[in-house]
Structure to design on (633 residues):
């Protein structure tokens, strides 16, 4: 290329490369045509790998929520693909904005946030072994987790900056109380669709026309029969042998995981003082602290009694100022430095200042860093190595069996050799579940195969699968004769629904002539219907008498001047004519101080969410965002 740098062909090649870089970034050159980039946000890519991880994380979250009810229909309703992408785009925009504003997160802030995560605690304190084991189980490295924490803290700082100026006035609280406590009582008439079933007919011409116009609705999707083996590491765990040498080697290379860190048993007396206090307040607080330190320094002084009398730390004062054993990283830096600089049984001779105020401290005991002996942790190491070995064994068995299956060995024989079971599914279409398989990945991997072809699926989390496509039935349109009953039912329902809607609209028209409730009642009696009421309901209440239909907000639009609904409400089985019977304002006596505080919190949360949503929308409007549908779809 250097020899022919001036040639037209080489210039065209360079031009093509430049165009690709401009539109999709360097990462897109890996693996083909833009397959490594899910989206571009300004000049920064969101990789396909990042999108896949975000999507799988959302799937796991909602699978835990819905459990057995988690299926393809739920996934479609939740729109997880778009939500995963939106989260990534919004997160990137917020991080870029934080960088632009000069916000940053210190290492000690990341450390403190991790130390305070309860999941990593054992006996009320941070446990490094549990921390590493939890990350390992989630297939996350400490570096990646700590970086994710840093980004989360950075976004939290930005959000605090946006929302710090929000204020909820007493009038806002009262308005929210009036809105939430107001009730309405609505009179309504149900007009069932079934009432008109005998009044409608569906002819052959209508059936044929509907079939011709909506043939795709009667498509039978492609279906496959699949035989597969599940390779779950738990099945292999009992087969993994862990030698004494392996245990000793792991212990020697991970000694830090088995250390009991240096710690001190600490007492303190806190004289509270805000960093923003005026000089007079600070002087008074320091004078008090010096007096208490002087008392504590006297021979025979009772530090616990002084703490109970003077300390402003409500959590420790009653216990004589005792904080128990603390490790490095659990205290503010000035307090930690002072505490770990004292010998056991000594009182600090200086006052320590932190953002909370002034501290007088005493160290009762000190424990040096110790390493748990191998015999004490042997069981935990064996379990860990078995767990790792089981995953390796499952993957190795999958690789070996895949080669054997492609060479002609039956999956049933391979399963039996490993103490596993081969499952053969019924004909299954995309979006339908496979027996004992969670998620669509296995089926989606098998659908493109040809009959008799063998494949393997090894995702980021087990189990892993070996599978073989048994049969494939192509997609077809269901014949008219097979679809007739379904079409008749559909057209019958549409016609009865229209008749019910017209009947309900007539009742509403009658209700507009005179007192709404009385006029609706008279018209309903003439037509052979009964009138019911919702009973007083608030905006957030469910309409139990109306099958919990989501029409409460619409009903609250009715007023005394316009009490009749403009049109019928269409429910799954009825058309409903509704009129306002009564509007009941909230009782001011119910607005207690406790209720005010709760409403203020609610109002602040709403204001905060609205402000953040508006800010995120503004960032998205300003950004140049392009999506790669080849990845997202």
């Amino acid at each position: 290329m250097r020899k022919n740098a001036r040639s037209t062909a080489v210039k065209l090649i360079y031009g093509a490369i430049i165009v690709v870089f401009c539109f999709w970034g360097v990462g897109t050159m890996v693996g083909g045509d833009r397959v490594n980039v899910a989206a571009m946000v300004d000049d920064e890519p969101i990789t396909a790998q990042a999108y896949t991880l975000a999507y799988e994380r959302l799937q796991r979250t909602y699978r835990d929520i819905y459990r057995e009810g988690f299926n393809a229909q739920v996934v479609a309703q939740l729109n997880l693909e778009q939500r995963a992408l939106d989260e990534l785009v919004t997160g990137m925009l917020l991080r870029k904005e934080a960088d632009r504003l000069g916000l940053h997160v210190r290492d000690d802030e990341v450390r403190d946030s991790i130390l305070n995560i309860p999941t990593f605690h054992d006996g009320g304190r941070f446990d490094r072994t549990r921390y590493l084991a939890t990350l390992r189980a989630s297939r996350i490295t400490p570096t990646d987790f700590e970086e994710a924490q840093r980004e989360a803290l950075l976004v939290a700082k930005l959000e605090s900056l946006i929302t710090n100026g929000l204020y909820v006035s007493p009038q806002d609280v009262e308005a929210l109380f009036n809105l939430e406590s107001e009730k309405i009582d609505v009179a309504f008439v149900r007009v069932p669709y079934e009432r008109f079933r005998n009044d409608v007919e569906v002819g052959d011409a209508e059936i044929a026309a509907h079939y011709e116009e909506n043939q795709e609705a009667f498509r039978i999707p492609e279906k496959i029969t699949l035989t597969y083996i599940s390779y779950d590491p738990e099945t292999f765990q009992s087969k993994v042998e862990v030698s004494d040498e392996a245990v000793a080697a792991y212990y020697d290379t991970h000694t830090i995981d088995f250390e009991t860190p240096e710690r001190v048993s600490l007492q303190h007396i806190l004289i509270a003082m805000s960093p923003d206090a005026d000089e007079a307040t600070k002087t008074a607080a320091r004078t008090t602290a010096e007096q208490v330190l002087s008392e504590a320094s006297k021979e025979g002084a009772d530090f616990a009694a002084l703490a109970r009398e003077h300390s402003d730390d409500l959590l420790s004062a009653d216990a004589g100022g005792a904080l128990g054993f603390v490790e490095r990283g659990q205290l503010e830096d000035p307090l930690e430095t002072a505490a770990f600089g004292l010998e056991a049984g000594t009182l600090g001779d200086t006052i320590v200042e932190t953002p909370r105020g002034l501290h007088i401290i005493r160290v009762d005991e000190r424990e040096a860093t110790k390493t748990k002996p191998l015999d004490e942790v042997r069981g935990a190491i064996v379990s860990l190595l078995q767990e790792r070995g089981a995953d390796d064994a499952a993957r190795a068995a999958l690789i070996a069996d895949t080669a054997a299956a492609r060479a002609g060995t039956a999956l049933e024989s391979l399963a039996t050799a490993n103490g596993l079971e081969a499952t053969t599914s019924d004909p299954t279409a995309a979006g339908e579940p496979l027996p004992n398989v969670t998620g669509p990945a296995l089926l989606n991997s098998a659908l493109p195969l040809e009959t008799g072809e063998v494949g393997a699926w090894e995702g980021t989390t087990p189990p892993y699968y070996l599978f073989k496509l048994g049969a494939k039935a192509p997609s077809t349109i269901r014949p008219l004769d097979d679809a007739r009953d379904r079409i008749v039912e559909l057209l019958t329902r549409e016609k009865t629904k229209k008749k019910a809607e017209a009947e309900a609209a007539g009742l509403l028209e009658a209700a507009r002539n005179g007192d709404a409730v009385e006029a609706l009642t008279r018209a309903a009696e003439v037509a052979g219907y009964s009138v019911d009421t919702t009973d007083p309901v608030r905006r957030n209440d469910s309409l139990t008498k109306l099958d919990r239909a989501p029409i409460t907000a619409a009903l609250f639009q009715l007023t005394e001047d316009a009490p009749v609904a403009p049109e019928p409400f269409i429910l799954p089985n009825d058309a409903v004519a509704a009129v306002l019977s009564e509007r009941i304002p909230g009782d001011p006596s119910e607005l207690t101080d406790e209720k005010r505080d709760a409403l203020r919190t609610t109002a602040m949360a709403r204001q905060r969410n609205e402000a953040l949503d508006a800010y995120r929308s503004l960032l998205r409007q300003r950004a140049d965002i392009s999506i790669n549908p080849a990845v997202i779809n």
Remarks:
- Confidence is low (pLDDT under 50) at residues 1-8, 17-34.
